[in-house]
Design goal:
Layout lengths: L9 E12 L2 E12 L2 E7 L5 H8 L7 E6 L2 E3 L4 H6 L2 E4 L11 H5 L14 H13 L16 H13 L5 E5 L7 H16 L3 E5 L3 H7 L2 E6 L2 E7 L5 H9 L17 E10 L3 E9 L3 E5 L6 H8 L8 E7 L2 E2 L5 H6 L2 E4 L3 H5 L6 H6 L3 H4 L7 H14 L16 H13 L5 E5 L7 H16 L3 E5 L3 H7 L2 E6 L2 E7 L5 H15 L1
Parallel strand pairs: 3-8, 3-9, 6-7, 7-8, 13-18, 13-19, 16-17, 17-18
Antiparallel strand pairs: 1-2, 1-4, 4-5, 9-10, 11-12, 11-14, 14-15, 19-20
């Protein structure tokens, strides 16, 4: 008899669950148990096995060995439908939404209300969709195709899908990465409501401050094994970090450089119709520029425009690199002069999921490294080894398809491909989205090292701690305009948040 079988109040138990993908052991005899009315935090580094375990509970994967119990009875899920029928719902880290169906249609895809003749009842569909969004306290046009929604709206839509119905176990895989603080407050309120109904919430997050804020219990996975499980009130954040990384972690933000050089990038009156207006910014050698603003204020359009991804839709202005005008009409021109872009949506814009990891890393620099039209395997292998080691990317081999990596490791690959491409201007949109605390510290260190090599770095992030900790200068954006620029030390987190919020309120 296991240690769990003497307990009667566990809704969900997984015992000695193992799962391998080829030679890679994703889970090694992992056990976890969740009580009724509990919010259970699951934390660990990228590749620790968190998402694999949750996909087994949700019926998307089947375990190689081990057992799953619901309310004391052993269950086996051969597909996600069987898991949902038993009351388990998974909110994915990436959004499995149909881009060209609208929000309402995505909410009830596969479970549409129908009339007596078997046709979809559109009136009932939209009524239920409005109810699902109302319980989240959000509003957006249900007729909007998902492809036109913001990342935050897509995340909320996924959460609404999972919450609708009588689900007993709600699994949330990094649900807050795309949300603003007021949206997180709404989500946490819903999680508490689910908890008080005697249900279970499993909350996966790399944001440990949120884990400590909302959870009752924390379980740590490391290298596919369960290493620690404890009541949240009985452990500190530093102790959890030590269990996650297997060692004590020093200061997460590296020391800022005091040797910022001459102007490298000058942006003058940059405008993209309906998105950004008369943006004027300067980025110097060795400088990290942070872009701060509430969701939808134009920061993402600014970054995409600088990379040449959006300028063709109509815009004016001038961008100079080392005093010379550059062409923003297409990303290929930007890459040619030394720009690199880490997008907010890695699956759509940052990776080719059906290609191997090494090929994804190699793509931006192929033209610069090819000799007589041929790629030198020795150079490619060297770059792959160098950047994967620098970012601690967990991958069986360079030939492994990138779609099989964890979300955090995929994010690291998006950054890694620019490290080997002679990049001078790094443009990063939410650079640590879905990345664990150890890797986050490594990415920060790499970015500061790049700045110390006289590279220029532009970061847009919802995480104000990240912007303050990393940026030498912070520009606040509102409705596509830069309204204020602050040098390091001019504003604390509370003051910066007040400036951003005030800007939004003034606009309304």
């Amino acid at each position: 008899m296991s240690e769990f079988e003497s307990q009667n109040d566990f809704i969900l138990r997984a015992e000695s669950v193992s799962k391998a993908f080829g030679h890679f052991q994703a889970l090694d005899s992992v056990s976890i148990a969740c009580r009724a009315g509990e919010i259970h935090g699951l934390v660990g580094e990228n590749g620790a096995g968190k998402t694999t375990l949750m996909k087994i509970l949700a019926g998307e994967y089947q375990p190689d060995t081990g057992d799953i119990f619901l309310r004391g009875g052993k269950v086996e899920f051969r597909n996600p439908r069987q898991s949902k029928e038993k009351g388990i719902s998974l909110v994915h880290q990436e959004f499995p939404l149909v881009p060209y169906l609208n929000a309402a249609e995505n909410l009830f895809l596969g479970r549409e209300p129908r009339n007596r003749l078997g046709f979809i009842n559109s009136a009932a569909l939209y009524q239920r969709a409005r109810e699902a969004l109302n319980q989240l306290g959000i509003q957006f046009d249900l007729d909007t195709p998902v492809v036109k929604l913001t990342i935050a709206q897509k995340q909320l839509l996924e959460i609404a899908k999972a919450l609708y119905g009588d689900q007993q176990i709600l699994i949330m895989d990094e649900p807050t990465t795309a949300l603003q603080r007021h949206e997180i407050d709404i989500l946490f309120s819903l999680m508490k409501r689910v908890k008080h109904q005697g249900k279970v919430v499993i909350f996966i997050s790399h944001r440990l401050e949120e884990v400590f804020e909302i959870t009752d219990k924390i379980t740590v996975l490391r290298n596919g094994k369960m290493v620690f499980s404890v009541a949240t009130s009985n452990i500190t954040k530093d102790e959890i970090i030590e269990h996650i990384v297997g060692r004590k972690l020093g200061k997460i933000f590296p020391q800022k450089s005091k040797r910022i050089g001459k102007e490298l990038l000058q942006i003058s009156d940059l405008t993209r119709t309906g998105k950004i207006q008369n943006v004027n910014l300067t980025v110097r050698e060795g400088e990290i520029l942070g872009i701060a603003g509430l969701e939808g204020q134009g920061q993402h359009s600014l970054l995409r425009t600088l990379f040449g991804a959006d300028f063709s839709t109509g815009g004016t202005g001038e961008v100079r690199l080392r005093g010379k005008n550059i062409n923003l009409a297409h990303p290929k021109y930007s890459v040619r002069v030394g720009f690199g872009y880490v997008p907010g949506n890695r699956h759509i814009e940052g990776l080719i999921l059906n290609l191997p990891v090494k090929d994804n890393i190699s793509l931006p620099g192929l033209n610069k490294r090819a000799r007589f039209g041929f790629i030198e395997a020795r150079i490619e292998n060297g770059i792959f080894e160098k950047v994967t080691k620098a970012l601690s990317i967990k991958v069986p081999s360079g030939t492994s398809l990138i779609k099989y990596l964890s979300g955090g490791n995929q994010q690291k690959v998006v950054l890694a491909k620019w490290l080997g491409a002679d990049t001078d201007i790094f443009i990063l949109d939410e650079p640590t989205r879905g990345v664990d605390v150890g890797t986050r510290a490594a990415i920060y260190s790499i970015l500061r090292d790049l700045a110390n090599q006289k590279k220029a770095i532009i970061i847009s992030s919802r995480d104000l701690d990240e912007l303050i900790g990393m940026s030498d200068t912070i520009a606040i954006i509102r409705t596509g305009k830069i309204i204020k620029t602050l040098e390091h030390g001019q504003a604390a987190k509370e003051e910066l948040l007040a400036l951003i919020t005030k800007a939004s309120q003034e606009e309304r």
